[in-house]
């Protein structure tokens, strides 16, 4: 009784202070009503502080400084790891994503586990009804190899373990598929995660959670057209509402914002595309729930920062989000809005050129042995995606001609690592597809000297491992840019290259994939960073932009 009285008073107070006062003019009613509501509200709060409204809930911010628009990864990073698992959550954390949506269900012994469907299918394809098995039984199952072989041994995640993984690192949207409200509230509070969680469910279920938690947990329910704005949230003690993207407007968002209620735009399935993200962001959504968190984050950044301080090349395509050196990896790179896609070229036994980094097929395909020992016909039958994830099982190793044909008319430039292709064949392929002007070729100085003699228009990119070799390299190759070893990068070296009209590229791979490293290189004036972690580089760009002094606001008359 007390919570509902308080919440209705809170709703009434909001309506009065925002001019929604029925038939009476605001000027005749506001002062008295505000005073009455304030006294009553303060009285209730003094008696029952745990039952205060959820408006303005103080959510933890895992990314500092916080972004204006935050992303919720649906079932974790489910495109790159088994959904609702530790691996999917860790991928979110590594990418600097603020939120992961996960699903909760009860086991036979009354424990909460992360699972979307009522029936869980293990790595061997065997179904397990969650409600029919204990937590101990479910923890013995393989939750990973059904996605990809290298996830074999990934376990079903209990809520307790999930909270521990995400503590101070990742916020959680808990979707209550089948829960015990009282127990759920206790688990969150005992785990110390009350500011890192928003609990989503039906209103009646959320009321029970609110009651047992003493109002300490943030709750969220679905808002649909026809419901009160913001009365639906205030009446039910919600800290946030979920709105299907087509139903979100700026005016609806503004009404919830004035009431201190967060708005999550659901942009899944057919709504998970740039034009819908743009409408949702423009309408003022606080959070976007998506299956494409990396793309949403890139879209939000580039709309803010049209002029980039550095160019980005994705190593072997977007190999973090799709199988490296495959068409999906290059498509993903384009959707992330990068400047270059890097790829490697090798030859088959019969002299057909394919995209593959390693000399052997074993690591990335379902084949084995050296590529140059197999004919093109056999290579075309291999899967280049099965080891990344079963959704990519049909993906094949692209030939050089197939890839180049797909890039005609694209926006990205090409960063070609000539692993095993004669310069004559390389030059002919680029000319055949009219891609000479958009390609930079990486190889040894000797190789590039031969390439220059064949077609001097092709941009050349030799490696630079020692600063003292720069002058000789410039004279021998006349490069477009040099690929500088990250360990010798310096402000002075970059300035020397620029003085000679040469750009500086560098690979920030492995231990150098850190925001502080990218930021330092950008301060020195580096032209291009090649990376396996595009969202980290984008975050460095974002932080750099935020450090810029803002122009003063115009004086108001």
Main β sheet profile = 10 strands, mixed
CATH superfamily of the domain at 70-304: Phosphatidylinositol (PI) phosphodiesterase
- Unreliable residue runs: 1-7, 11-53
Count the E strands: 21
Task: Please tell me about this protein's structure.
This protein is 36% helix and 17% strand. The protein has 557 residues and is of the alpha/beta class. Among the domains are: 50 residues; 235 residues, Phosphatidylinositol (PI) phosphodiesterase (TIM Barrel), CATH 3.20.20.190.
Which helices and strands, and how do they pair?
Blueprint: H1 2-17, H2 26-47, E1 70-74, H3 86-94, E2 99-106, E3 112-114, E4 119-121, E5 127-129, H4 135-138, H5 159-166, E6 171-176, H6 181-190, E7 197-200, H7 203-213, E8 218-222, H8 231-235, E9 240-244, H9 250-258, E10 262-266, H10 274-283, E11 287-290, H11 293-304, E12 311-314, H12 327-335, E13 340-347, E14 353-355, H13 376-380, H14 400-407, E15 413-417, H15 423-432, E16 439-442, H16 445-454, E17 459-461, E18 463-464, H17 470-477, E19 481-484, H18 491-499, E20 503-507, H19 515-524, E21 528-531, H20 534-547
Parallel strand pairs: 1-2, 1-11, 2-6, 6-7, 7-8, 8-9, 9-10, 10-11, 12-13, 12-21, 13-15, 15-16, 16-17, 18-19, 19-20, 20-21
Antiparallel strand pairs: 2-3, 4-5, 13-14
Which descriptors apply to this entry?
557 residues, alpha/beta, TIM Barrel, ten-stranded mixed sheet, eight-stranded parallel barrel, 36% helix, globular, disordered N terminus
